[in-house]
Design goal:
single chain; 8-stranded mixed sheet; about 15% strand
C-alpha cells in the first residue's frame, strides 16, 4: 500500500513508519517544513495548507498529529493548541483528501481514551458514553472531524489510544528515572485504573486495521488487562528491583500540574478493547509486567 502518515517523527509515528516500510509498504510523511523529498509532503495543519500534488494514488492515511498534552501546564493558550492541532488539523486534512481525484480508501485517525472521562472501576468498551472534562471534549470534536471522510466513502477507523508503553519515550521514559532511583510510588489513591498499550501492539493494531477491510469505526487501542496505578507501581518496582514507597499525593500533583493532574494522573479509565479482539486481533503484551520486563531489561 501507499500510506500517508502525519505525526511521523513522534514516538508512535516513527515506529509505525519503520514497520510499514519493513512490510513493503510505501510511506509518505506529512512534514511541517517545505521539502523536495519524494516521500515528504508539506502541510500546515492549522491553516490547512497542503501540497496535494504528491497525494494522488495514496491508499491509506494514518493521522497521528497533535500537540503534546503532557508538557507544560494547561494554560488557555496551551489548550487552544491542543484542540487546534487535533480538530482543525483533522478537518483540514480530511477536506484536502476528499478533493483528490481518487481519495484514499481508509483513514485511521488517532483519538484517545480521554473520550470516556473518568469511568471509575467500571469496565468500558467502545459502546461507552462520552465523558466530561477538557480531554473528553477534544476527543469528541476530534472524532467528529472525520465525518467528511465517511461521507466521501472512506473507511474510517477512530483509535482511542491509551497510555503507550514504550522504552523510547512517552510516560514510561518520564517515570523511569525516579523509579530507578528508588523514589517511585503510587499517585493519589493508587486505585485509579490505567489503560495502557505496548508500542509493539499499537503499531501492529494500526497495520492490522490498514490491511483488514472489515475493521472500521471506534477501536479502543488498549491492552485487554488495565491495571490500577498501585498495580502498575508494584510491577515497575518488581521489574527494576527497586522500592516503591514514595507516593505522590493528589494535592501535590494538582499543585504541580493543575487541571492536567486530574485528567492525566488521577483519572480512572478502565477501558477494554472489545472491538478489535472481536475482529481476531491478538496482543503480544496482554499484561503489563511482561511488557515492562521486555522493555526495561
Amino acid at each position: 500500500m501507499k500510506v500517508l502518515v502525519s505525526g511521523s517523527t513522534g514516538m508512535v509515528g516513527s515506529a509505525l513508519v519503520e514497520q510499514l516500510q519493513s512490510k513493503g509498504h510505501q510511506v509518505i510523511s506529512l512534514v511541517r517544513s517545505k521539502s523536495d523529498r519524494e516521500n515528504e509532503v508539506f502541510w500546515d495543519p492549522i491553516i490547512g495548507k497542503l501540497d496535494t500534488s504528491k497525494l494522488e494514488g495514496v491508499d491509506g492515511v494514518v493521522n497521528l498529529a497533535g500537540e503534546n498534552i503532557s508538557t507544560g501546564r494547561w494554560s488557555p493558550q496551551k489548550k487552544k493548541r491542543i484542540w487546534d492541532s487535533r480538530v482543525l488539523g483533522t478537518q483540514n486534512l480530511v477536506r484536502a483528501l476528499s478533493h483528490l481525484e481518487a481519495p484514499p480508501k481508509i483513514l485511521i485517525n488517532a483519538s484517545a481514551i480521554g473520550f470516556y472521562g473518568d469511568t471509575g472501576s467500571t469496565p468500558v468498551n467502545e459502546s461507552g458514553s462520552y465523558g466530561s472534562g477538557f480531554l473528553a471534549s477534544v476527543c469528541k470534536d476530534w472524532e467528529e472531524a472525520t465525518q467528511e471522510a465517511e461521507k466521501n466513502g472512506m473507511r474510517v477507523v477512530k483509535l482511542r489510544i491509551g497510555m503507550v508503553v514504550s522504552p523510547t519515550g512517552g510516560a514510561l521514559k518520564k517515570m523511569l528515572l525516579p523509579f530507578k532511583l528508588g523514589f517511585g510510588g503510587k499517585v493519589g489513591s493508587g486505585k485509579q485504573y490505567m489503560s495502557w498499550i505496548s508500542i509493539d501492539d499499537l503499531i501492529s493494531l494500526i497495520i492490522y486495521s490498514l490491511e483488514n477491510q472489515n475493521v472500521s469505526g471506534v477501536i479502543n487501542a488498549v491492552a485487554p488487562n488495565p491495571v490500577t496505578n498501585t498495580e502498575f507501581t508494584k510491577a515497575m518496582g518488581k521489574v527494576l528491583n527497586r522500592p516503591t514507597i514514595f507516593p505522590l499525593p493528589a494535592f501535590v500533583a494538582r499543585t504541580m500540574l493543575g487541571e492536567m493532574a486530574d485528567e492525566l494522573l488521577l483519572v480512572s479509565a478502565r477501558v477494554v478493547p472489545k472491538a478489535i479482539t472481536d475482529h481476531g486481533f491478538t496482543f503480544k503484551y496482554p499484561v503489563i509486567e511482561k511488557a515492562l520486563k521486555d522493555y526495561l531489561s
